[in-house]
Structures are given as C-alpha cells and as structure tokens.
Amino acid sequence: MKEPVIAIFDIGKTNKKLLLFNDELKIVSETEQKFSEILDDDGFECDDIDLIENWIKESISQLVHSEKYDLTAVNFTTYGATLVYLDENRKRLTPVYNYLKPIEEKIPESLYKRNGGRDEFCRRTASPALGMLNSGMQPLWLKAVKPEVFCRIKNILHFPQYLSYILTGKIYSEHTSIGCHTAFWDFDNMSYHPWVKVHGLNLPVPVPIDTTNEVFIEGKKIRVGIGIHDSSSSLAPYFSSSNGKFILLSTGTCCINMNPFNTEKLTAEQLDKDCLCYMSITRQPVKSSRLFLGHLHETTVNQITAHFHKSEDYYKKIKAEKRISTFLREKFKEKKIFFKTGPDSRELKDYIDLYEFGSIEEAYHQLMHELCDLTIEAINLILPSNDDIDNIYITGGFSKNEIFLKLITEAFPLKKVYTSEIANGSALGAALVISELKSSLNLGLSICK
Q1: Which helix H or strand E contains 257, and what residues bound it?
Q2: Which end of the chain is more exposed for a tag (fewer CB within 10 A), N or C?
Q3: Rounded to whole angstroms, how far apart are CA atoms 113 and 259?
Q4: What b/e readout covers 286-309, taking b as 16+ CB neighbours within 10 angstroms?
C-alpha cells in the first residue's frame, strides 16, 4: 500500500530541497538540488527560474506515478524579497531579479519623501531601508529603468505564490510574504500601505495561509497550498506545540531572533539596529532582530585555527570551561579583542591580536563571549518593556554549541532555554499549515542547564 505524503519544495538561495512528509509530519524522503545561477537582462546573477519550474513539475510527475508514495498535497516555502511579474496573458515578464541587485538611492528616497520621511516610512512598514531587499522597491526600480516592461505588468506575485501559481493558475497573496521587510505593508493599519495604490501596483488581497486548491495533475487530484515565506514558516511548528510565550533564535549564517508576542511598535532606534517585523501564520506582527552570527563566527574561527595551527573544525571539540571563562572575564573585563568598540558595533577589528591568548581554547572562549554579548543585545531589542516571555528556543547550528548555550542560559536566568532538534523547520511549517494533523508536534526540545 502506498504511503500518503505531502511534498514541500523548500527553495533557498543556495539549496533547493524536495521533502516528503507523512501523515504524522515525519520526513520520509529528502532530496537536494543546486542550480547554477544565470545572468539577468542586466548581466546580474539571479536564479534560473525556468530550471526551477521544470524541476518542480518533473518531481511532481514522478511522485504522481510513484509506486511507493501517494502524493496528496504540495506546498512551497521560499526565501523572501523576490517578486514575479505577469502580463495580461499571465505570462512571466522578467527574470526573477536578485534582491542583492543594486538600486539607485534616489528611487527609495523619493518614496520616503512622499510618505513622511525615511524614519516614519520604515517604522510604519516595519522595514529597515535595505534597497532591493525591500521587495516593494523592485517594481519602483522597474518603473524607473524599464518603463516599457513595467507598463505591461498585470499581476505581481511574491515568489512562494508564483510557484503555487504554476500548478494552479490562481493569483494569491498572503501575510507572511507581504510582511517580510517588503515596505508594502502598513503595520499601523494592517493593510497595504497607501503608496501601493498611488503607484498603481496590482497586488492581490491577502488570504489565509491554509488556503489550498484542488487540481488534477496527470489525472491525479492533489491539494496545492499557496506558499509561505521561509522565516515565518520556521516559526509555525512552535505555535502548534508551545507551552507559554516564547522567542525563537534561528541560528546559522544569519541569526534571526523572533518574538511573536511583542505587540509594541518598532521604534526608529530599533530599525537602525536592524530590527524589523515579519508576519506570523496567525497574521500577527513578529518583532525580530538579526545578527550575522554564523558569518562572524566562521570568519574569525578561520583566523584562530590558522594562528594556532589547528584544523578548521577543531573548535567543535572545545568544551565550555568555567575556569577559562572566569579567567578571561577578569583579564579583559569590558575590553573587546575581536570586535571594534563603540555603541552597537558589530564590526570585527581590522587587526586581531591573537597573541593575547595562551591557547586556542582561550581564544575561542573569548570569541564566543563577544558573539554572545552581541546576541544578547539583539535579543533584548525584541523583548517587551514588561518582559513576560517564558521560553527561549534555539534551533540551527549554534544549538549544538555548548559555550553558546551556556552563555545564553546564564544571561536569561528567569527564562527556560531549550534547544530544538527540528530539522528542516521551514519545510515542516509549510507542511503543517496545509496538513490535517490534529495532535501536537514533537519539537525535540532539550532544556539547557
């Protein structure tokens, strides 16, 4: 008898995955693809959307005819800040432009000027000024530099909804994609910002994230979800199973700290410190802060291991030692070895004097002290003034770092700190929102002592 499965396409900038979940939302199959980028019509690198579309359609076709699995549903989770434009015949008009593509400063500045100034506009849309990473700036850029293309736009879709569209032919929008630093959404009024209408952008009215459509693919009836933004998707499993209010630290190259229970509006100061709001699956703002934790860690570890003539992964063997931590705290006090001093500095020093340390263990402990200090500052930015958060969940690469866990636990003695062993959290969230699972998920939580 075939095993019923939900297929989730998890589309990251680097890796593209296809995961199959059973009725209990356990992963029964996982495959991964890496597609080379191509050049857009300006010669800038972007994803090869034709290749991605073909891979999705071929994968679904294989599953429809599988002798092992009974494909019942499909959904998508993707990176954000990416738009797809359709013409009046509902054909894609442009490449899928890279959100790292440069944009002339005068384009967003003109929008800010007409809508209360940069600080007020960014506060109201909960979107730090990030150029094309604010996907709302992308159609304005297109209007400015390719007006002949812009005038042909009939519909605008965020990336997750476009991938759903290629199967269903349905035009949708939903809150998690609109709410991820797009500058489209007015968080004060919880609707599209008035500038969207002023500029004549045809954005669909958002629908609930659990919306599905039944379609026939090669004779088989399949439910297709409308897609979800990956950061909000990774948060979804914790809503289903959490006891008490929580924040989630999703660690990796970029550490994203998310608090779905802070109803205070973003301040200009928080925006300047790289805070923003995502939107949860329950259509509530999720106050978030970001830190390039993994990138800073990797860059510095490479210097440390080279200095002490150790292998690149030697740091993984280093255990948390209270003796070393105490010694370093007394020796350096407030002095920073790795990072520049100054208010809210997250920049590494141009020259790091590793001769300050007698061993690689000392150097690595000091690095983790300074990285954790930055992480704690980022967490404090998203805690409400009357802090009522019970739990901190840590997932991703640093959930296995003993020193990191110990320092975070010590910094928040009134909260319970857990690691979570959820693998592929974004894909799981995308499966969860269209599944019929009634019981709680097992989050694989382990409390940190």
Answers
A1: strand 255-259
A2: N
A3: 31
A4: bbbbbbbbbebbeebbeebbeebe
Q: Both 189 and 63 in a single domain?
A: yes
Q: Tell me, yes or no, if the pTM score tops 0.85.
A: yes
Distances (CA, A) of 303 to 212, 346, 361: 50, 17, 14
The CATH number that applies at residue 63 is 3.30.420.40
Q: How many CB atoms lie within 10 A of CB 192?
A: 18
Under a CB-based contact definition with an 8 Å cutoff, are residues 15 and 78 in contact? no
Domain limits for position 424: 229-449
Bridge partners for 392 per DSSP: 247, 417
Could you tell me the two tokens for 259? 């608090």
The conformation of residue 317, written as its DSSP 8-state character, comes to G
Whether residues 249 and 159 share a domain: the answer is no
Q: Do 257 and 139 reside in the same domain of the chain?
A: no
- 262 and 397 co-located in one domain: yes
Q: What is the residue-level pLDDT of the chain in tens, covering all 449 positions?
A: 899 999 999 998 888 999 999 999 999 999 999 899 999 999 999 999 999 999 999 999 999 999 999 999 999 999 988 999 999 999 999 999 999 999 999 999 999 999 999 999 999 999 999 999 999 999 999 999 999 999 999 999 999 999 999 999 999 999 999 998 999 999 999 999 999 999 999 899 999 999 999 999 999 999 999 999 998 998 988 887 667 899 999 888 889 999 999 988 888 888 888 899 999 988 889 999 999 899 999 999 999 999 999 999 999 999 999 999 999 999 998 899 999 987 778 889 999 999 999 999 999 999 999 999 999 999 999 999 899 999 999 988 899 999 999 999 999 999 999 998 887 889 999 999 999 876 677 777 888 86
- Domain count within the chain: 2
> Whole-angstrom Cα distance, residue 26 to residue 441?
10
Shared domain for 263 and 358, answered yes or no, is yes
Q: How far apart are CA 168 and CA 163, in angstroms?
A: 9
